[in-house]
Amino acid sequence: MKTIKLFIALAIVLSIAPFALKAQDDPEKRATLPRREQSIIRIATVTAKGDLLKLKTELNTGLDAGLTVNQIKEVLVHLYAYAGFPRSLRGLQTFIAVLDERKAKGINDIIGPKASPIRSEHSKYERGKAILEKLTGVPEAGPKTGYAAFAPEIEIFLKEHLFADIFERDVLTYVEREWVTVSVLSSIGGVEPMLRSHLNICLNVGIAPDQLQQFTEVIKQTIGRKEARNAKKVVDEVLKNKSKE
């Protein structure tokens, strides 16, 4: 009798094993936000909101999670393109204070590599254009439309400065820069078209749908339900449209 029961149990295990293995191999079913990336999101959101007291806590958490000093500096520099110089500068000033406090406690944080020099024969416009095409997966061709046609200068600034001067720097990966970007856009609100575009870029650079859903939970925990609810609405829309492709 015991032998029969053992045989039945073994048969059940063997029958479900392939499905269990398949679930483990499916990146979308096991995708979770690494602690470092959650810290990037939290640092970016509270900086964009201007909550400097909470920022001190998140900066300490980010350093303890393994972010280097230069990576956090890059997060705070990157977000100025979306939240403005005042927020960025206040974030950097707060970071200086946090580092001084940690040093006084005998904590020696890892500085990390600086950005590599850019050596290219191509113009900044062409480099920025190429980076944007890589991020979106869409060729930058055809006549300019919308804001690019209405104000050509802003289109040049975007290519030359945002996507060349900023995105080209290698201190952060494209994934990490997109986390900063969507975090700031979710924090300031009223910029849903831009948030939608960058959420699509998130998917294009390898961020999983489950991670985008987790992102909205981090937003809720960090700055509030309203911002998280608005961000989730756009995330759900982007994922729904993606599933139809």
TrEMBL record:
It comes from the Bacteria. The keyword Signal applies. One of its GO terms (molecular function) is peroxiredoxin activity. Pfam families: CMD. InterPro entries: 4CMD/NDH-1_regulator (IPR052512), AhpD-like (IPR029032), CMD-like (IPR003779). Residues 30-92 form the Carboxymuconolactone decarboxylase-like domain. Residues 1-23 form the signal peptide. Keywords: Signal. SUPFAM superfamilies: AhpD-like. This is Carboxymuconolactone decarboxylase.
